[in-house]
Specification:
Distance between the termini: 78 Å
Number of strands: 55
Strand order of the largest sheet: 16-18-21-24-27-32-35-38-41-44-47-50-53
Helix content: under 10%
Radius of gyration: 30 Å
Strand content: 35-45%
Shape: globular
Length: 690
């Protein structure tokens, strides 16, 4: 009985289990039919990926014959246990499939058009994956991580923000329709462009947002992109219109009494009209909209002073200066201040009617917040044709810039053209008219602008923080590509400066993806004098054509230097440059730095008694540059993976061969180097791989 009693429950249990299994199979079969009918597809099969067994490929058959066109269902991971959540999706170019990607880089492909080319599922990542985009040209795809790192699979690699300090994390990416590049977007709406097809059409990087940006999409036919915020707010960008924000605003159009045919100087009238406009708000900015066909002659500066939430929408309107302004004050507005408006100190003579025209800029922005200038066209009177072009520099007119941004916060200039000026394209940071009060600038974005025929620098700064330059072009520059040089006149901490500031200097400056051609002297010049600080400064993926140098000079000067975290990465110099300096890069009194991934052709420094260059600018080169990079009195600087063609030596430390004299300051420490290429074309050499 005991044996029988034991067997009966087993038999009953077996029958019950078998019955349940049969019913379950029937139910699954019926569900499969329902799913197949509802999606017009057949069940999917899971297969291990060919390149990474830790990240399976999910493939499916193509849609049945006669299936409707549109968004067909090719499968999902809804019934699969995932190691990490799905964070992005991209469609195959022909619409017959899609990829989805997890935060660990695991990839799942569905449909015949979505081939599997590899994943990161079993790879250790510095930051999680946040998006994916498909390359329609190759059928491959890219993944992007929150630190801006980009991973290419059967798709060309155009660059990334990996290793670059970001103000906010990257949250998504979009591919250029038809191939040729991609865009990355950060949560503050900052845009990073990579590849020849990825134009910069604007961003919200310097625009206060109600909610963070969470994704982006490219216009299918090309010519722009959209950003979306977590509250559903949409921001649209296109080559012609620049930023178009869905936030309502009050639009003001210049009165017809202001001539718009370049027949007479209308600067005083424009100044008075703009000064009369009310300030906007974050939800309803004041929009100054110029007609696209307008042409305004402006022989004096257009000031934006003590204004907030103002957007100047140029729509391509032209502003032309036909004279140098000699003998005429260029600011004709009295704002009722006891000592006049707080313009930079070097403009005060103009305010008192002396006729000094040294600093007659097209537009001055001072003591203002949340100002955006988009799609204006400034053309100056400078038509110098001297050769070499640096002979066009005129110290009497050197501050006649396109823009002077003296002080304020969240100032954006984008999509504009500045040409034929005696000064810089943009001159930022400076002093106000009040003696001893520093005009601190916190938040300046300069993106997608074109600057040409500049009789001084591409851009320059005397101080400020949170600068972001990207996607600009500069051509025919008489002096330096850029010049950050503290003025050394600040007696106290700058007003409004909160980080990295003691007297003067800069914090959190990034220049990415800018192109310079026809630059006479330095490419990158950062000079930080006594009581100056400079920290978190990055120059990345820029292209330079500089003819003299050194190409890069970053110097702190005694007695109290504080230059920290300086990164010069992935930049390219297109032509050999000619210099009396021996080295191409000079770091002095820098604490924490990275010089990596740069390509620098030979330094053509050898000259005969008549000053004629002896080195051959085309291979095979006759003379070699003794050393490419000089580091003095610095700590914790890494030099890696640079191509310093025709340098006999990559790095010298605390030496005197850079032409600067014998180094007598504190010794360097913590300097490392690896992976650099050097030597002549005939006998190239490479250091140990990093």
């Amino acid at each position: 009985m005991r044996l029988k009693g034991n067997r009966l429950p087993e038999t009953g249990s077996l029958r019950t289990s078998l019955t349940r299994r049969i019913l379950l199979l029937v139910a699954l079969f019926l569900c499969g039919l329902i799913i197949g009918v509802s999606h017009g597809d057949v069940p999917v099969q899971a297969q291990p990926g060919p390149s990474n067994p830790g990240s399976p490929q999910i493939s499916s058959s193509s849609a049945p014959s006669g299936a409707p066109m549109g968004a067909n269902f090719y499968g999902s991971t809804g019934a699969i246990r995932l190691n990490s959540p799905i964070v992005g999706m991209a469609a195959a170019a022909d619409g017959t499939g899609y990829w989805i990607v997890g935060s660990d880089g695991g990839l799942f492909s569905f449909g015949p058009g979505a081939n599997f080319f590899g994943s990161l599922g079993a790879t250790h990542l510095n930051a999680p994956i946040v998006g994916i985009a498909a390359d329609t040209a190759t059928g491959g795809y890219w993944m992007v991580a929150s630190d801006g790192g980009v991973f290419a699979f059967n798709a060309p690699f155009y660059g990334s923000m990996g290793g670059v300090h970001l103000n906010k994390p990257v949250v998504g990416m979009a591919a250029v329709p038809g191939g040729g590049g991609y865009w990355l977007v950060a949560s503050d709406g900052g845009i990073f462009t990579f590849g020849p097809g990825a134009g910069f059409y604007g961003s919200t990087g310097a625009t206060p947002l109600n909610k963070p940006v969470v994704g982006m999409a490219a216009v299918p036919g090309g010519g722009g992109y959209w950003l979306v915020a977590s509250d559903g707010g949409i921001f649209t960008f296109s080559p012609s219109a620049g930023i178009q924000i869905t936030t309502p605003g009050v639009v003001y159009i210049p009165p017809e009494s202001i001539a718009a045919n370049c027949s007479t100087d209308v600067a005083p009238a424009l100044d008075a009209w703009i000064a009369s406009l009310p300030n906007g708000t974050s939800t309803s900015p004041t929009v100054v909209s110029f007609p696209s066909t307008a042409c305004y002659e402006v022989e004096e500066t257009i000031p934006i002073w003590q204004q907030s939430w103002v957007t100047v929408q140029g729509n391509g309107a032209k502003f032309e200066a036909l004279t140098n302004g000699t003998g005429a004050p260029y600011i004709g507005i009295d704002y009722g201040e006891p000592d006049g408006p707080h313009y930079p100190y070097y403009m005060v003579p103009n305010l008192v009617g002396s006729g000094n025209n040294n600093s007659r800029a097209f537009m001055l922005i001072d003591d203002s917040t949340n100002i955006t200038v988009n799609d204006v066209n400034f053309t100056g009177p400078q038509n110098c044709t001297d050769t070499p072009y640096y002979n066009c520099y005129d110290s009497a007119l050197e501050s006649q810039a396109g823009f002077i941004v003296s002080s304020g916060s969240n100032i954006t200039i984008k999509g504009s053209t500045i040409s034929h000026v005696w000064g810089d394209c943009a001159q930022v940071g400076g002093f106000t008219a009040d003696s001893g009060v520093h005009g601190w600038l916190n938040g300046w974005t300069f993106t997608g602008n074109h600057c040409d025929h500049l009789a001084r620098h591409g851009w320059s700064s005397n101080g400020g923080e949170h600068f972001a330059l990207s996607g600009n072009t500069f051509s025919q520059v008489a002096y330096d590509a850029m010049d950050m040089e503290d003025d050394g006149n600040s007696p106290t901490d700058p007003v409004g400066c909160t980080t990295g500031c003691s007297g003067a200097g800069w914090a959190n400056v990034t220049e990415h993806g800018d192109t310079y051609s026809g630059v006479a002297f330095f490419s990158i010049a950062v000079q930080c004098g006594p009581d100056c600080t400079a920290e978190n400064i990055t120059f990345d993926h820029n292209s330079y054509d500089s003819q003299a140098g050194p190409e890069v000079t970053v110097n702190g000067l005694n007695p109290d230097p504080y230059v920290q975290n300086i990164r010069v990465t992935n930049n390219t110099w297109d032509t050999p440059f000619q210099s009396s300096y021996v080295d191409s890069v000079d770091f002095q009194l820098v604490t924490g730095g990275l010089i990596a991934g740069n390509t620098m052709p030979q330094n053509c420094y050898d000259q005969d008694i008549n000053g004629t260059l002896l080195c051959n600018p085309t291979p095979p080169h006759v003379y070699q540059q003794p050393v490419a990079i000089s580091i003095q009195g610095s700590t914790n600087v890494s030099v890696q993976n640079n191509n310093v063609e025709d340098a006999a030596q990559v790095l010298e430390i605390d030496s005197s061969s850079n032409g600067q004299g014998v180094w007598s300051g504190p010794p360097s420490s913590g300097i490392s180097q690896c992976g650099n290429s050097y030597g002549s074309n005939a006998a190239p050499q490479r250091e140990t791989v990093c």
